[in-house]
Design brief:
Blueprint (H helix, E strand, L loop, with lengths): L2 H5 L3 E5 L10 H14 L3 E5 L1 H11 L3 E4 L15 H10 L3 E5 L11 H10 L3 E5 L3 H9 L4 E3 L17 H10 L4 E4 L5 H8 L5 E4 L1 H4 L1 H12 L3
Parallel strand pairs: 1-2, 1-8, 2-3, 3-4, 4-5, 5-6, 6-7, 7-8
The structure holds N-acetylmannosamine-6-phosphate (LRY).
Length: about 220
């Protein structure tokens, strides 16, 4: 079955912990992915070469790979350059996710050339966008999948507490390529509201795999914050 067949109308779980997070480490992320698999996740979204390799070994699930890396003077941090793409190609992931927002990139390679490089390696390219216009452009230059990952995380996109339901709805209506709903889907109610918009698939991360944030929600509720 192709990657797209596997994920259609199914849940993808993002398993990520950066260096400053309590669960950082591939020995932990592989178990997080295993737990997601036992819960029924059909694919994993993962950050870093080491985590992807470990998660593949542990679960054999298809992986959407990315590398978060900061470059001085630039705001983009999800697979910002060709260097990260080349590392991801070697990791065994099926899909490479990258920032596809309308902001400067640390290398002089166009987004289109990056998509072509990913296709040459036989992989799919996922555009992490923050607005409707960025998604339209991403589809035009050949991205295979668009995800609403960065809505709320660029200075010019809407800041919402929950998921960007309206953006998902508009993209589903207007784009021919698969639209993945991702970002701040924190409750079952959020998920059901998103599902009504009929995205191709959904990614849930923090609400499942960042226990420090889950704990905080409970603590805040208990303390009436
Ligand atoms: C904005 C950003 O850097 N998002 C990252 C992208 O890979 C991850 O930290 C998120 O966990 C992922 O997008 C899933 O979203 P949520 O954790 O809200 O369910």
């Amino acid at each position: 079955m192709s990657f797209l067949d596997i994920i259609k109308d199914k849940l993808i779980v993002s398993c990520q912990a950066l260096e400053n997070e309590p669960l950082h480490g591939s020995h932990i992320m592989r178990k997080m992915a295993k737990a997601a698999q036992e819960g029924g996740a059909v694919a994993i979204r993962a950050n870093s070469y080491d985590d992807i390799v470990a998660i593949k070994e542990e679960t054999n699930l298809p992986v959407i790979g990315l590398i978060k890396k900061d470059y001085e003077g630039y705001d983009v941090y999800i697979t910002p350059t060709v260097d990260e793409i080349n590392t991801l190609i070697k990791s065994g992931c099926e899909v490479i996710a990258m920032d596809a927002t309308n902001r400067p990139y640390p290398d002089n390679v166009s987004l289109k050339d990056k998509v072509d490089l990913i296709h040459k390696a036989g992989l799919l390219a996922m555009a992490d966008i923050s607005t409707y216009e960025e998604a339209i452009y991403a589809a035009e230059i050949g991205f295979d999948i668009v995800s609403t990952t960065l809505s709320g995380y660029t200075p010019y996109s809407k800041k919402l507490v929950g998921p960007d339901v309206e953006l998902v709805a508009r993209l589903v209506k207007d784009l021919k390529i698969p639209v993945i709903a991702e970002g701040r889907i924190n409750t079952i109610e959020d998920l059901l509201m998103i599902k009504e918009q009929k995205p191709f698939s959904v990614v849930v991360g923090s609400a499942i795999t960042r226990p420090q944030l889950i704990a905080k929600r409970f603590v805040d509720a208990y303390n009436n914050k």
